[in-house]
Amino acid sequence: MSGRRAPAARQRGVALLTAVVLVALATVVATAIAFDTTLAARRGGGAAAFEQAGQIAGGAEALAAVAIAEYRKQQNAPIHPGQAWAQPIGPVEVVPGAVLEAKLVDLQGRFNLNNLTTTEGTENEAAVEVFRRLLENVGVEPDWAIAMVDWIDDDIAMSPGGAEDSVYSSETPGYRTPNRPITNASEMLALKGFGMERWVKVAPFVTALPRGVGVNLCTASAALLDAMSNQQQWTLSPDALQRARAGKCFPDAQTFNASVSSPADLAKLNASMVIGETSNWFQVRTLATIGTSDFALYSLLHYEQGAGGGRVRVLARTFTE
């Protein structure tokens, strides 16, 4: 009798094993389907959030353009931080679940790195002196000014204290100097040995605009004003500068010219850099928070004066998440 039961027991064992395998396969398939469904939902939600953030940031960009055009209606009207355009927006919930923060920055309140060279691509000595003093004012070694000149000048001849292709090509991986105007001030990070620590100190005071674009005295930082005037009037008391600017342009051209250390320095400065009280170049920084995700948009805006009135164009956008 036991010999007859053995095949039946084996059959039951095979059936049980088959059932276990089928259950396991079904579990794996169900898990895969659930994972793919969740992933697809997250992708869809992420794409929707990205699109929504882009629309919100685009709205902030359009508002900034309107504000710039409004203040630039009068061609020579001063642009200063006491005006409404300089006030940050938010955080404000623009639609349920979407929060916006935005700020308009006057890029002509910074030192234009491309002015380290002339329109012929050679070293602009007076501007280099200003940049050296600016670096020193923000706690960075002034000799980096020469390295930056070599980075953007038209030739490949190495200046004393500078660096050209022969230096950068030996890096791993190797790279070359552009030897032309830059489009982003963060290219300073490409200077050999410059590093993030120095960049954090310098970044709020520099920009990369076309050669010849000058400085707006009304929005220039204390460190830059002192670098241009070869004084230490404002660097040691930035709060005093902020108080002096309450609701107006300060210093205006006349006040600034009187503060420059000597007539010779003023002549050199005016010959190498354009200094005024208005601006045409701005950056809009927008942060849109959708749920738990943050999306940042950096837009470069340029005001163009025309015969039929001015207009604001968006020249570049950088979108991050």
With helices defined by DSSP (H or I, 4 residues minimum), what is the helix count?
9
Main sheet strand line-up: 1-2-7-8-9
Question: Major sheet, described briefly?
Answer: 5 strands, antiparallel
Instruction: Report the CATH architecture of the largest domain.
Output: Orthogonal Bundle
Q: Which fold name is given in CATH as the topology of the largest domain?
A: Ribonucleotide Reductase Protein R1, domain 1
Structural class: alpha/beta
The level-1 CATH class of the largest domain: Mainly Alpha
Global morphology? elongated
Radius of gyration: 30 Å
Q: What is the H/E string?
A: HEEEHHHHEEHHHHEEEE
Topology:
Elements: H1 2-71, E1 89-95, E2 98-106, E3 111-112, H2 125-137, H3 144-152, H4 165-168, H5 195-202, E4 206-207, E5 215-216, H6 222-229, H7 238-244, H8 253-259, H9 263-272, E6 275-276, E7 281-290, E8 293-304, E9 311-320
Parallel strand pairs: 3-4, 5-6
Antiparallel strand pairs: 1-2, 2-7, 7-8, 8-9
Throw out a few tags for this protein:
single chain, 321 residues, alpha/beta, Pantoate--beta-alanine Ligase, Chain: A,domain 2, Ribonucleotide Reductase Protein R1, domain 1, 2 domains, two-stranded parallel sheet, 9 strands
How would you sum up this structure, described in words?
- The chain has 321 residues and is of the alpha/beta class.
- It has 2 domains: 42-108 and 280-320, Pantoate--beta-alanine Ligase, Chain: A,domain 2 (2-Layer Sandwich), CATH 3.30.1300.30; 110-276, Orthogonal Bundle (Ribonucleotide Reductase Protein R1, domain 1).
- Helices cover 42% and strands 17% of the residues.
- The protein contains 9 helices and 9 strands.
- It has helices spanning 2-71, 125-137, 144-152, 165-168, 195-202, 222-229, 238-244, 253-259, 263-272, and strands at residues 89-95, 98-106, 111-112, 206-207, 215-216, 275-276, 281-290, 293-304, 311-320.
- The strands form 3 sheets. A 5-stranded antiparallel β-sheet has the order 1-2-7-8-9, covered by helices on one side. It has a two-stranded parallel ribbon with strand order 3-4.
- A hairpin with a 2-residue loop joins strand 1 and strand 2 (98-106).
- Helix 2 (125-137) crosses helix 3 (144-152), helix 2 (125-137) crosses helix 6 and helix 2 crosses helix 9.
- It is elongated, with a radius of gyration of 30 Å.
